[in-house]
C-alpha cells in the first residue's frame, strides 16, 4: 500500500515545526514554500541575483533533513554584522543562491539539495520566479513588498502577487499542482497569514488546484495574533480570510490551540511582532469549517509560543485515517 500523501503549504518559521515531526511518520511529504520574502538576507540575495528568496526554503530543508546537528549549525550559521558584504547572511542562503544560479532554477537547486542532505520528502518553491507581494488595505491604500506590509497602520483587505522581474502572470513551480491534486491531506500553516501562507494560495494555478483537489484541506491556526497583519483576529477571522482569497469555502478542518499562553511568558523583545493569543470563536468557526479540532497544541520555549509539532501531527494523521476508505 502506498504511503498517505501530505502536502504542507506556507513559509516562515511555522511549517518547519510541523514538517520536522511529520518526517518521522510513514507518510509521503511535499512542502510548498513561499517565494515572496523580500527582507533581510533573502531580500538582498533575491535583488542582487534575481532569484527566488532562499530563507524559507533553507528552514524547510533543515526541518526535513536527517543532517547531523553539526551540519545543521554550519548550514544555519549567520555571518556577523561586522563581516562586510556577508553580514547577516546565513551560509545556507548563500549555498541555495549559488546552486540556483548554477542550475538556472531555484526548483532545480532544491531537488539537488534534498538529495544532498537526505531529505525526507520533496521541497518545491511555490513559483520558480521571485514574487512581489501586494497588500490592499481596507482604506484602499496599497503596500508593495512583504517586508513593508506590517509597517502600515491599517487592516488588510486582500493580498495578491506579481512576478518581480516581468509582467507575466505568476505560475506555480514544476510539480506543485500535481502534488496538490494527488494529496490525501493538504496542510496550510501555521505561519503568518498574509505574508507566509496566502502568497502561495493566490498564485492562480495553486488557487485553482485547491478549489478542485479531492484532498482534505486542514488549516493549523496561529496561536498568537500578529502586528500589522491579524490584530484583533479570532480563529474564525483567519479562516474567513483564507476562504475569501480562495473564492470558495475550501477549509475542511481547523486545528486550534485552546491552552492559555501565560501572560507574563512571552519575550516581547525577541517576539515583538506577536501581540495577544488568538481568541477562540467556536460558533463562528463551526459555520466555516466542517471540522474543528481544538486541543492543547502549545509549546512554550525560548520566550515564545509555538505549536507542538508532535501533537499537531497526531491530529493530522487522524484526519487522514478518517478520510481514507
TrEMBL record:
GO biological process: regulation of cell shape
Keyword terms, alphabetized: Cytoplasm
GO cellular component terms listed in the entry, alphabetical order: cytoplasm
Name of a matching Pfam family: CofD
Record-linked HAMAP family: Gluconeogen_factor (MF_00973)
PANTHER family the UniProt entry points to: GLUCONEOGENESIS FACTOR-RELATED, UNCHARACTERIZED PROTEIN YVCK-RELATED
UniProt protein name: Putative gluconeogenesis factor
Organism: Streptococcus cuniculipharyngis
Lineage: Bacteria, Bacillati, Bacillota, Bacilli, Lactobacillales
